[in-house]
Specification:
Largest sheet: 5 strands, antiparallel
Number of helices: 8
Strand order of the largest sheet: 8-9-7-12-13
CATH topology of the largest domain: Substrate Binding Domain Of DNAk, Chain A, domain 1
Shape: elongated
Number of domains: 3
CATH class of the largest domain: Mainly Beta
Radius of gyration: 28 Å
Length: about 350
Amino acid sequence: MVNSESYTKLVGGAWGGTMVDKAYERFLSDIAGPETFQQFKEEHMDDYSDLLRTFEVKKRETSPGHSGKVTFRIPPTFAETIKDATGLSIHDKILSSPFNGQVSYVSGKTRVDGQIAQSFFKQSVDSIVQHLESLLGERLNKEYTAIVMVGGFSESNILQDAVKCAFGRRYNVIIPEGAGLAVLKGAVIFGHQPSTISERICKYTYGQKVCHETTSACNHPPTRTKWVVGKLHCSDIFEKHITIGQTVKLEEEQMEMITSPCSADQTTIGETIYASKLSEPRLITEPGCIKIGHFEIHIPDTSLGTDRKFGTMFIFGDKEIAVKTEDKQTGQVHINSIDFLE
């Protein structure tokens, strides 16, 4: 059991089984030629999809250290496209490719040296192992004792062997039965019982765009200032509500921020929500900062002018972010759903 303080935010990269698929496609492209392979994909989409489906099965069966040949079934239209586009047979193209002597073609199947077949996995597997090394080396993750492998790619013998070799002495590597369906089952359970997940680790820093009157204490760049109702204001400021890596309980109100209208006759305050990969972003214009949505605060009574104050608090739900707005004069509370389509 690990306490919540040792959790980390969701992380990862494009290192899954699709990277292996792309390596296999590059292999076929090197044989046929890039333009010919692209022609095959466009003119024989069904056969191209079938090629990937059959490779998916073989991908899980390929074993580490296998020195013999590995057989891959190839649609007849692949060889036909090569012949029509280049005037050469697939045999001739293999002989003139970098795989001469390591690959052969017989009766609609390629016979590939085990070393080449395993090379399809190298970039993906190396990236996963290196990332796990980095992740498990972080101070907060020292209490972990096991690695659970789930998802379709976790059924790959090569990936399983690489993880066990790299971490088997330090961690208990668990591969549950039906690992490929674990994520799908989890999604179904969550759909029926959202309360099964009570906390989340924020993948980004979340906040809203604000501006305030410029004073001698401000240290924002001069280019980020503008005149508002005759007064100089610092603009494009990132006002942080949640920090990247922070644990948030579902439906729990976060820290309150106070906002006010810029002009006395203002009837609506438009608020824009931003996310950043930085822990302490200062401006919404910084690299890695993206707009993710907006909401509006309506001011039916403008009698207080710019002295009108509203408290805003983020609320993280099971699948969305909402903002609770409290009118500090009247005590009225509104829950604003974030429009993520803008």
